[in-house]
């Protein structure tokens, strides 16, 4: 390894740990509002904490997946510059994935950040996206976004050497997915429904032992890019397509990224190059435990951090003392 590549490798390793501090700060900020029924306050606390934490990260960052357009979000909007200076990086963030989950103290609320080299994330507006994802170690064409769900389940079962009855499909519990759910059950597979938080759902479909074999359905485009970033690190297959409600959304997508905005997107169309990903649990779910506050003077966090370059996945437990915590240099 050359001196230059060694320095780059060390920088990536340092950034991976810095990202954990960012998602930890956001999760602790949001956790104050867990179960209080105030989703906007929870989201605002996560956004503010995440933004301040980014002030200490050694990057020249541009938010490409954020809280919305500049006139829609006061902080962490698409195009906002963050970081203390350093390598040029694109940032995808969801300061609180599952605001309703946090407000109702339901499972799977997360704080999520991903970094990539400039131009390596799909620049997508905050609209819906159709998605399908399965784990790694399978043929590239094992599933097809445009195929009927029964066909995808049969192909997946064949590739894994199991019966369809052994498969579980995860999707958001939405009226728009009623036919998908019915056809899945008709094919013989089980269905796991989640109320929110499809980043965790997609990741679960690609992690051994999660109890989920495939994720299918439509959810937010920003969440799709974040999930793709995670899959670049842990391995998996994903296809997606932006869903538009009007021509104005099509034009906005055309302005933000090259290519046909209605095309089918592969995993590397969504996230490519060297990717770093971090998530911290706010409420306990299938992927991570939530924030606990023993005694009210401390917080315990559980995070996952991944690097596509090494393929390393780390689970990190953090213990935070509010009496001595200095968020700016934590």
TrEMBL record:
In alphabetical order, the GO MF annotations are: fructose 1,6-bisphosphate 1-phosphatase activity
InterPro entries registered for this protein in UniProt = FBPase_class-2/SBPase
Enumerate the SUPFAM superfamilies for this protein: Carbohydrate phosphatase
Q: Which UniProt keywords apply?
A: Carbohydrate metabolism, Hydrolase, Manganese, Metal-binding
Reaction catalysed?
A: beta-D-fructose 1,6-bisphosphate + H2O = beta-D-fructose 6-phosphate + phosphate
* CDD domains with a match to the protein in the record: FBPase_glpX
Please report which protein family the annotation says this sequence is part of.
Belongs to the FBPase class 2 family.
Q: What is this protein called?
A: Fructose-1,6-bisphosphatase
Name the gene behind this protein. glpX
């Amino acid at each position: 390894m050359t001196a230059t590549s060694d320095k780059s490798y060390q920088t990536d390793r340092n950034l991976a740990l810095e990202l954990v501090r960012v998602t930890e700060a956001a999760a602790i900020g949001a956790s104050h509002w867990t179960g209080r029924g105030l989703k906007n306050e929870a989201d605002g606390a996560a956004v503010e904490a995440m933004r301040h934490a980014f002030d200490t990260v050694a990057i020249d960052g541009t938010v490409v997946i954020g809280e919305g357009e500049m006139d829609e979000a006061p902080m962490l909007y698409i195009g906002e510059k963050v970081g203390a200076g350093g390598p040029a990086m694109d940032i995808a963030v969801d300061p609180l994935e599952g605001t309703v989950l946090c407000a109702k103290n339901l499972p799977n609320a997360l704080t999520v950040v991903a970094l990539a080299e400039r131009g390596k994330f799909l620049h997508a507006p905050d609209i819906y996206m159709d998605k399908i994802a399965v784990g790694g170690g399978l043929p590239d064409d094992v599933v097809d976004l445009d195929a009927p769900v029964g066909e995808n389940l049969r192909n997946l079962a064949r590739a894994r050497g199991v019966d369809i009855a052994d498969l579980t499909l995860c999707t958001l519990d939405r009226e728009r997915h009623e036919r998908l759910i019915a056809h899945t059950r008709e094919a013989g597979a089980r269905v796991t429904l989640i109320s929110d938080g499809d980043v965790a759902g997609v990741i679960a479909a690609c992690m051994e032992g999660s109890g989920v074999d495939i994720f299918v359905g439509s959810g937010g485009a920003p969440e799709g890019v974040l999930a793709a970033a995670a899959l670049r690190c842990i391995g998996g297959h994903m296809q997606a397509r932006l869903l538009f409600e009007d021509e104005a959304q099509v034009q906005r997508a055309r302005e933000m990224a090259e290519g046909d905005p209605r095309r089918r997107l592969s995993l590397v169309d969504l996230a490519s190059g060297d990717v770093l990903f971090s998530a911290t649990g706010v409420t306990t779910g299938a992927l991570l435990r939530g924030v606990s506050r023993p005694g009210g003077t401390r917080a315990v966090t559980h995070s996952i951090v991944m690097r596509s370059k090494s393929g390393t996945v780390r689970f990190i437990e953090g213990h935070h003392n509010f009496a001595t915590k200095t968020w700016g240099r934590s």
